Amino acid sequence: MNEKFITLPIMSESLIKNQKFSKCNIEESISNYLHLLLTSSFGECDFDEEFGCEIWDMDFNNVVSNNKLKYAITDSLLKSIKSNEKRLSNVEVIIEIEQEENSTKNKTSIKKRVYVITKGVINKTNEAFEYRENFYIGPLSY
Q: Domain containing 62: what range?
């Protein structure tokens, strides 16, 4: 497939100078878009109030159990991908959560590491697709 997509982040200098943008293949383009969905909270993007993911609404909520958090993130992300990323079908989202404790001389902090695995099929090529990302939420310090 010779189709090329614009890479992220978009370099504003290229836009201003009317230069060509860096290009990528469909797999990288979908991965970039999934990253945008994961790192955007609902209402953050003016063009679409429903663009994003519920993860950031729970960032500092330390009361929610890992199972509830896992279910909420999975459900939110799956809905968001299905409504925003039309290049994928048969989408499956797998979430794993681990709690990590980091201690220094004067303080201890607890964070939850969220592992996200997104699987699906690229509609144009009928090829399997997999995207993995992880990040921390819920910085609790004591």
A: 5-141
pTM as predicted:
0.78
Question: Which positions ≥6 away from 79 have C-beta within 8 Å?
Answer: none
**How confident is the model over 18-67, as pLDDT tens digits?**
777 778 889 999 999 999 898 888 888 788 888 888 777 665 565 567 88
- Classify residue 80 by burial, with Cβ atoms within 10 Å: 0-12, 13-18, 19+: buried
Count of the separate structural domains present in the chain: 1
CATH number at residue 93: 3.10.450.40
Contacts of 1 (CB under 8 A, 6+ apart): 25, 26, 124, 125
Distances in Å between the Cα of 106 and the Cα atoms of 62, 95, 103, 141 are 22, 32, 8, 11
Report the DSSP beta bridge partners of residue 132: 117
